[in-house]
Every structure is written in C-alpha cells, then in structure tokens.
Amino acid sequence: MSQVHKRVPFNKYIAGNAVKFNRYKEKQHFYSQAVLSSGFVSTQAPEPEFVGGIPGIQIIAGKDAILRCVVENLGDYKISWGVVNQKDQLSIGTNVFKGKDRIHVTHSNNSWYLHIKNVTQNDTGYYICQISTNPIKTQAGHLDVVGICKTFLLYSVKIISSTKMHIINGLLK
Ig-like domain location, by residue (predicted)? Predict the structure, then answer.
C-alpha cells in the first residue's frame, strides 16, 4: 500500500518546525535556570561578583600593608592583583610575579589579601583586584604611604584638636 504525502507549502513547514524548535529551547532554558522554590538546581554556576570595595588605607612608611578583596562565587575563575598605570600584574592567584621579596598573596574563604612588607612612599597608589571573567571585572583601592613628618603633623593636629575640645567642654561645664 502506498503512502499518500500531503503537500505542505514551504513557509508553513518552516513555521511549524520553528515553533517546535522554540518549544525545545524554552524547555532547555527552563531546565538551565535555578528554580529554587521547585527544587531545581541551576546547571550554570553564577558569575563571580565583588562584595564591597577595597578599603583605602593610610599607613606609615616602613610598616606592612594589607589590601583585601572579597569575591563571591569565584568557581574556576582566577584573582589577580596589579597596580593602576603599570602594565605588569603583581600576581595571579597566590603566584607572585613582581616584588617577591616584599609582596605575597593569601586567601581565606572568599577573601584575597595582598600583603606588602616594609612599604615606602613609592608604593602609594591605586591597587586593583581583578576577576578573570570575560570581560574582566576590576575594582581598585588606594594605598597612601605617609612619611614620619606628615604622620607626626596629622597626629599632632588630632591631639591639639582633642585637647581644645576638652578645654572647651571644661569651660562649658
């Protein structure tokens, strides 16, 4: 017995298959999304994100500085440290490339720390923490290294201001 084929116009054939394809894609999209209330688990890891910023710090020359970068959902991505306006990176992960005698990187949970020993005024500047996503995610924090004279003046002003406040408070009582 021979089969009878119904002729379907080409544009209707394409449209019918497009609907089937779109339904397939919708199902794939549904299964790849995290639907926590229904108990489904995402097949894609969330993108890594910075948590907060790198706090700027001011430190006396000769002391050790520590800059902190916090990243959630790092997964297989890498963290690198660098200095703004310098093309060479300081580190990738905990591997240090520049200044190995004074610089090292540590991490604990989702925090990455850049340690700089015996800072000098040449270390003053913006330090960047980067995540190896595409495009690269970057955040910066400022390190300000002050000399003894500048530091003495800063603390002297604070002491004098504090003393004046005590005198003014004493007169008001």
Answer: 48-139
Q: Is 10 exposed, middle or buried (0-12, 13-18, 19+ CB in 10 A)?
A: exposed
The more confidently predicted of residues 25 and 134 is: 134
Task: Answer whether 96's CB lies under 8 Å from 102's CB.
Answer: no
As a whole number of angstroms, the distance between CA 7 and CA 15 comes to 15
pLDDT digits (tens, 9 = 90+) for 74-132: 999 999 999 998 888 999 999 999 888 999 999 999 999 999 999 999 999 999 999 99
